[in-house]
């Protein structure tokens, strides 16, 4: 890495101001010689942030929702100023902190490429020279000459990312934008980000996806409630971040992420082995979960899904029950898992009822229970079925020349 950082953050604090009406009321109280209510002071969005990022480095930014990740990127991009401290950016910067950041919705995709390039100091001739590469990367075809307001979210990501990596920015800020794209485009983005790193570009990348962080980042900055808790090697940072996720999952167990559109409610849930909604088992152990659902009105044909989710919300095991229909009333369900050869970790139980093809209209209860797998760490996969790898020399085929 280069000796001089491209980004230097020194003692950064950020707090957003009060809305207009409360601020005016506080001012009048001061004029009247009264002390304004200090309880109306908003908390700090960021405090005591200190780090540097260098050319050729991909720095990840991890943290729970509300920890200040997006605010940090906005300060770095100059969208909002710091309240205290200093931010020094040395070189052209391209922010991809929102899907439509820097994109004019009434212009065509091609016109936006010229606009974004001009903002970064490129001449029209320089943009023309790079246009074939941008077109090929975006894969928008004739849509490139249509207004961006007609684009889907995935198409806007293609336009923004395709432009950002082909202009002459030394620094790229990314806020989870690739999560919208399809798998093939995501893999293409990863390949180009690796190329940018080899060319000495600096990338700051915000994500909740632990595996994506491990794959992309050289170092990771971990934020919690606006404070910097760690910056350093990716693996160590991910361990700290996973601990934060586990603590949050424990605090929210049984009360997070529920929605209902069919008149259903989760009445009770417990593992047979523990009698509670939490169970600890060894790797390869069995677990049986029983729960009661209340239906306030009849439902038609549907699917009941029971999933074990990883910390980053990946379905590891899913069981599905087809239901032809049910009248209003109480129903008991039981699911049994055998030989759970899963990576030692904490897993949340998600219950869901999907009505036909309308996946958004049904019932869901996330984090309804918690299963903890204990065992040997270091396994590469989330699920490791029993089996073995054998090795044997190949004998020379009959009739082969000696």
TrEMBL record:
InterPro entries reported for this sequence: AAA+_ATPase, ABC_transporter-like_ATP-bd, ABC_transporter-like_CS, ABC_transpr_TagH-like, Bact_Polysacc_Export_ATP-bd, P-loop_NTPase
Keywords: ATP-binding, Nucleotide-binding, Transport
Gene Ontology CC terms, in alphabetical order: membrane
Superkingdom, natural source: Bacteria
Domain ABC transporter: 31-250
One Pfam entry name: ABC_tran
MF (Gene Ontology): ABC-type transporter activity; ATP binding; ATP hydrolysis activity
Gene3D superfamilies reported for this sequence: P-loop containing nucleotide triphosphate hydrolases
Membership in a protein family: Belongs to the ABC transporter superfamily.
Protein name: O-antigen export system ATP-binding protein rfbB
Organism this protein belongs to: Magnetococcus massalia (strain MO-1)
């Amino acid at each position: 890495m280069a000796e001089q950082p491209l980004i230097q953050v020194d003692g950064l604090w950020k707090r957003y101001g009060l809305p207009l009406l409360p601020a005016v009321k506080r001012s009048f109280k001061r004029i009247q010689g009264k002390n304004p209510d200090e309880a109306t002071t908003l908390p700090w969005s960021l405090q005591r942030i200190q780090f540097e990022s260098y050319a050729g480095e991909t720095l990840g930014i991890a943290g729970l929702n509300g920890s200040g990740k997006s605010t940090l990127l906005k300060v770095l991009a100059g969208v909002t100023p710091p309240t205290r401290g200093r931010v020094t950016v040395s070189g052209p910067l391209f922010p991809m902190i929102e899907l439509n950041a820097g994109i004019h919705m009434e212009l065509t995709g091609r016109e936006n490429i010229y606009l974004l390039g001009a903002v970064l100091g490129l001449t029209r001739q320089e943009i023309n020279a790079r246009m074939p590469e941008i077109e090929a990367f975006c894969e928008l075809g004739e849509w490139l000459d249509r207004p961006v307001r007609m684009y889907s979210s995935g198409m806007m990501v293609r336009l923004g990312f395709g432009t950002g990596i082909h202009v002459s920015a030394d620094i790229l800020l990314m806020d989870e934008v690739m999560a919208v794209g399809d798998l093939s485009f995501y893999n293409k983005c990863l390949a180009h980000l690796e190329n940018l790193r080899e060319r000495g570009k600096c990338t700051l990348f915000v994500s909740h996806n632990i595996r994506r962080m491990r794959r992309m980042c050289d170092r990771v900055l971990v934020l919690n409630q606006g404070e910097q808790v760690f910056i350093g090697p990716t693996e160590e940072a991910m361990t700290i971040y996973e601990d934060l996720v586990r603590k949050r999952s424990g605090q929210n167990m049984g009360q997070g992420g529920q929605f209902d559109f069919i008149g259903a409610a989760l009445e009770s849930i417990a593992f047979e082995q523990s009698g509670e909604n939490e169970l600890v088992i060894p790797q390869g152990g069995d677990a049986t979960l029983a729960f009661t659902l209340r239906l306030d009105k009849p439902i038609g044909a549907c699917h009941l899904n029971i999933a074990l989710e990883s910390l980053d919300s990946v379905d590891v095991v899913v069981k599905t029950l087809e239901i032809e229909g049910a009248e209003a009333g109480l129903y008991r369900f039981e699911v049994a898992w055998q030989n759970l050869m899963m990576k030692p970790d904490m897993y949340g139980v998600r219950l869901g009822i999907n009505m036909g093809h309308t996946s958004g209209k049904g019932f869901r209860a996330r984090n309804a229970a918690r299963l903890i797998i204990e065992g040997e760490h270091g396994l590469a996969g989330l699920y490791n079925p029993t089996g073995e790898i054998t090795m044997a020399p190949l004998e020379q085929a009959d009739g082969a020349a000696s």
